[in-house]
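JOB MANIFEST
job_type = single_chain_structure
chain_count = 1
residues = 124
[input]
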Amino acid sequence: QVQLVESGGDMVQPGGSLRLSCVVSGFRIKDYHMTWFRQAPGKEREFVAASENFGIGTRHADAVKGRFTISRENVKNMVYLEMNSLKPEDTAVYYCAAARRWSDIATLKNYEYEGHGTQVTVSS
């Protein structure tokens, strides 16, 4: 059974940091490009970051570049999102997803698997 379980979401003040984790079971993440996307209330999905299957290449959305970092541990079958200098506009549910093709990482719809998300709230 395939499962992607995100954790680490919380409420933090602007300027704060969080580390999200995604633990995967049912498939090997080394066979997939792993991505994080987010969705704020009343808004469309937004690509955040992606990690190439062997972890060499990464891509980050302009909105988070320099503040967020995606990483992965293929041996543990886990993906992470380190988030620093958080802003109120980062408030959203953050999802972990797996894509077969690098061209699909930012499509927000062609993912092979998706998790159920973890809530991040940035507010003073």
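[summary]
The CA atoms of residues 13 and 124 lie 5 Å apart.
The first strand starts at residue 3 and ends at 7.
exit_status = 0
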